[in-house]
Write a structure and sequence with these properties.
The protein is mainly α. It contains 7 helices and 3 strands, in the order H-H-H-E-H-H-E-E-H-H. Strands 1-3-2 form a 3-stranded antiparallel sheet. The radius of gyration is 17 Å and the shape is globular.
Length: about 120
């Protein structure tokens, strides 16, 4: 039987895209870079995500060892999601994406302003 890692694409870029390459997973990771979050906090913050998609994304990211799920023995139970050590290793990638996005916005705005003259 093949392991999960063996089921991922051979190309390392394709593997990364398979793990975090959808809109919701990236936004979940963006939030988890700051601190651990509870399910309802994520659901409220990620405007437009359904509970099912959030649940499925969190489960998949946990199965892929990108995030951890901690259940605190309280009444009612408290569950927090956080980046795992493996997920934390993606911090430089996500920060580079943020920097690139900011630079892109500046360039596009600059180009639009230049077109006015």
């Amino acid at each position: 039987m093949r392991t999960k890692a063996e089921l991922k694409p051979e190309c390392p870029v394709a593997t990364t895209v398979a793990l975090i390459g959808n809109k919701w997973k990236l936004l979940i990771m963006r939030n988890l870079l700051v601190r651990p979050w509870r399910f309802n906090e994520l659901h409220k913050d990620l405007e437009g995500i359904s509970q099912k998609v959030l649940t499925d994304s969190l489960r998949q990211m946990e199965a892929d060892r990108i995030i951890t799920r901690t259940v605190y023995p309280e009444v009612p139970p408290r569950v927090e999601y956080a980046l795992s050590e493996l997920g934390e290793s993606m911090r430089p990638i996500l920060m580079s994406m943020q920097e690139w996005g900011n630079n892109y916005k500046v360039q596009v705005t600059k180009t639009k302003d230049d077109d006015l003259f």
